[in-house]
Design brief:
alpha/beta; eight-stranded parallel beta barrel; two-stranded parallel ribbon; 17 helices; 14 strands
Length: 437
């Protein structure tokens, strides 16, 4: 078995700050965060964790943890301020320095090309609703492939469903609210993924290429209720299935097609698009935080159903479900026939308040959550699932999108104060270098 990767994950828009420095252009979150009422407490990502200036400190934290992988993203608008055209060399140099330093330290650089922060100048041209964006993204990806040779892995996109939320549900940037917009944005994003993979294969870059799609597996509150069972299947099909079906099965699934027909939505697509979208990949990145229990009956309290079946809850109100990762891996294998190496590219838990004792942050529930996650991975490995690595979200508390700075997911605080979970993870990595959980 190849070396198991134990790592942590971050994203440019959430940690870098320096939103208007050294030639960087605005992205849609820079703009969205300035609209009153969109972000909790009016928080903005302008400074975030200031990692643009403090990246060397962050590499030291990674070394101290003992991780052998770091997942981070490139800010498209930092490299191409207008999303296309002239390269901002200072921005490109920043990512090359970071990547080279990680590689020299024996920490495998795992780069995500798009983690939700579209250049605002492209949004002004229609953003993900403009089919031309597939080519713009491929051009941007090609620049990264040809100028950052020391990456170990590239993911084209992180959790494409966030783009759908931004165009269909108003919840994320850019803040639109039409189902048709969300579905067209989905298709153009998938096409951009396929074109980027094509560019990667032609670039000569020696890394691996993949995509990251999250699975929050919906399960019926009442397994004996046909309505609950069908609701769970439909929600899964419209969520992760919107991406996994085109990428791994060459088509939109029946739930997506039925919804488009039911809503009278026509999206711009071509039959040949699916050959590009389904281009073979080197790995699949699975983000998994929890499962979702659903009921077709509005009078059913899902939390009570979970509790009655022996379930437990964390202080943040989330269910602590031990087999979330294991179940998601089964979905990937059994429903979408994914048979390439899999990395758990995000997994973690956030809290608004964390206990402090004698000046130390004692996040015991995060530790319990992680133990549960590692047991789930161990179960999957014993059953032969080809899981090659795990990236914990996140290295430090950061800008959690529309939750602002209120939700804390880090092993460290924004000012780099260590939490108890950091010591736990460091000890875990030291004892499990072989990946046996």
């Amino acid at each position: 078995m190849k070396e198991f990767i134990w790592g942590v994950a971050t994203a440019a828009a959430q940690i870098e700050g320096a939103f208007d420095e050294d030639g960087k252009g605005l992205n849609i979150w820079d703009v969205f965060s300035r609209i009153p009422g969109t972000i909790r407490n009016g928080d903005r990502p302008d400074v975030a964790c200031d990692s643009y200036h403090r990246w060397k400190e962050d590499v030291k934290l990674l070394k101290d943890l003992g991780v052998n992988g770091y997942r981070y993203s490139v800010s498209w608008a930092r490299v191409l301020p207008e999303g296309k055209g002239k390269i901002n060399q200072k921005g490109l140099d920043y990512y090359r320095r970071l990547t080279d330093t990680l590689a020299e330290a024996g920490i495998a650089p795992n780069i995500t090309l798009y983690h939700w922060d579209l250049p605002y100048e492209l949004e002004r041209l229609g953003g993900w609703l403009n089919r031309d964006i597939a080519e713009w993204f491929a051009d941007y990806a090609d620049i990264i492939f040809k100028n950052i040779p020391n990456a170990a892995m590239f993911a084209t996109h992180n959790e494409p469903i966030a783009t759908y939320v931004g165009y269909a549900l108003k919840g994320f940037a850019p803040g639109f609210g039409l189902e048709k917009y969300g579905r067209q944005a989905n298709h153009n994003l998938l096409l951009s993924h396929g074109k980027a993979v094509e560019r990667f294969r032609a670039s000569g870059n020696k890394a691996k290429i993949g995509i990251v799609v999250d699975i929050w597996n919906r399960v019926p509150a009442d397994p004996e209720s046909e309505a609950d069972v069908q609701l769970a299947k439909e929600q899964n099909g419209l969520a992760h299935g919107s991406y996994l079906s085109p990428i791994f099965c060459g088509e939109y699934n029946k739930y997506v097609e039925a919804m488009l027909k039911r809503e009278g939505i026509e999206i711009e697509r071509k039959e040949e698009d699916f050959a590009l979208i389904g281009a073979p990949l080197d790995f699949y990145g699975l983000n998994c935080y929890n499962r979702v229990v659903v009921s077709s009956r509005p009078d059913v309290d899902v939390r009570k159903v979970i509790a009655q079946n022996g379930g437990n809850f964390l202080d943040n109100g989330n269910e602590l479900y031990p087999d979330a990762i294991y179940d998601a891996l089964k979905v990937a294998r059994d429903e979408y026939k994914i048979n390439i190496p899999i990395y758990i590219t995000e997994n973690g838990v956030g809290f608004e308040k964390e206990k402090v004792e004698d000046g130390k942050i004692c996040d015991e529930q995060r530790v319990e959550y992680l133990k549960s996650a590692f047991a789930s991975i161990g179960k999957a490995l014993k059953e032969g699932f080809d899981v090659r690595g795990y990236f914990l979200w996140s290295l430090m508390d950061n800008y959690e999108w529309n939750a602002g700075y209120s939700m804390k997911f880090g092993l460290y605080t924004r000012d780099r104060q260590k939490k108890a979970s950091a010591d736990f993870y460091k000890d875990w990595i030291s004892a499990h270098r072989d990946g046996k959980c």
